[in-house]
Structures are given as C-alpha cells and as structure tokens.
Design a protein that fits this description.
Helix content: 55-70%
Low-confidence stretches: none
Number of helices: 10
Strand order of the largest sheet: 2-1-3-4
Largest sheet: 4 strands, parallel
Structural class: alpha/beta
Shape: globular
Radius of gyration: 18 Å
Strand content: 5-15%
Amino acid sequence: MSEELIQQTQKAIVAGDEEQAVEFTRRALKADLSAFSILQGGLMKGAEIVGDKFETGEYFLPRLMMTGRALKAAMEVIEPQLKEEYASGEAQQDDTGVVVLATVKSDIHDIGKNIVSSMLSASGFEVHDLGVDVPIKEIVKKAQEVDAEIIACSALLTTSMPFMRDLMNLLEVMGERDRFRVMVGGASVSEDFARDIGADGTADHALGAVKLARSFIRDLRSNQGAAQ
C-alpha cells in the first residue's frame, strides 16, 4: 500500500495533474509515510522522469510547466511535515542561515529549483526565492539587502549557464566574492563546471544541496569565530 501511494504520487507529477498530486500526497501522509520518502520516491522521481523526457525531446515545455505546477502544489502539502522531520532541535539551527535562490537570466525552468527551495525551507533556512529568468544584478542586490550567506543559482539550459560565470565575475568586480558562498545547480551543471567558474560547490539532488548549504554555514560561522 505504501509503495502504491508513492507510485501514484509519482505518476501524478509525471502527468502534470495538480489535483491528483495533492490528493495522493495527502493520502501518503495520512498513511504515516515519511515526508522525505514521499518527496524522494514520488515528487522528486516524477520530476526527474519529466526532466529526462524533456531533454530527449519526448516532452515539451507545456508538459514541463504542468509538472512544475503539480510539484509546487504537492510541495505545499508536504512542507510542514518536512519541517518537522528536518528542522527540529536547536543543534540544527546552528547550521542554517539565509539563502537567495533563483533560476538565472534566460531560463524559465524551475522544477529543480522549487524542490531545493522547499527542502532548504523545511530544513530551517530562510529562503528568498526570486523565481526564474532573474538578472544577475538582481540576485546580488537581493543577497546584499537580506544579508544572505548563500547565493544559489539554477539553470537547466546550457545556454543559460554562462550567466552563472557572469555572476561570479560580478561578485569579484564588486568586491563581494568573499561575502557569500555560491552554489550552482541544474541538469547540465557538473562539479567541473562549478569549479571552473569559481563557485563554491554543486549537488546532484535536493538533499545534497541542503547538506552542502549546511557545510557552507558551518564554515562561515567557524571563520567568523576565528576572526573574533
């Protein structure tokens, strides 16, 4: 029964059926399945399937957008339980902070970004999600305004990835590079690419992004302590 509910949730995401995605997510929670198992086996897996089919040309942008809406609706249902599972206890508050998150200029894809945004929020981070097609100057400006510790950028299209390099260059020119930890992600973003543009890291999935963000916060707090 548990596996069947997760499979139904996954299928609803693949179909881009917002109503069914919400319904099966609620059923899975009522069946006492962990929020993370629903997220990983249902929502993330469904989004991954759609992303793969989009890349191969089997699915097109309208289907991707439908899946994005279904995923967002399901995440709103699951996020309170995720917070209970991942943000409880004072110890975890020591390695959370402020994140500015966006899909970079010329890219409107947000499925992966939305998952990461929800996971970071559920894990106790204060997340400022700027949405999609965001100019790099706007990203940096927001990070300065909210005194962010982490800037996280996403890009699905390879043609959008150069904007991540531009972001790193802008931070250098502004003398703000050392102020932020920068994490980048997306289907085509690799560790080599992140290293090449001077970013601080990347992750293969949302849980990895949370772990990476926490490691950045620990490093920043450690450096601040050493400087005092």
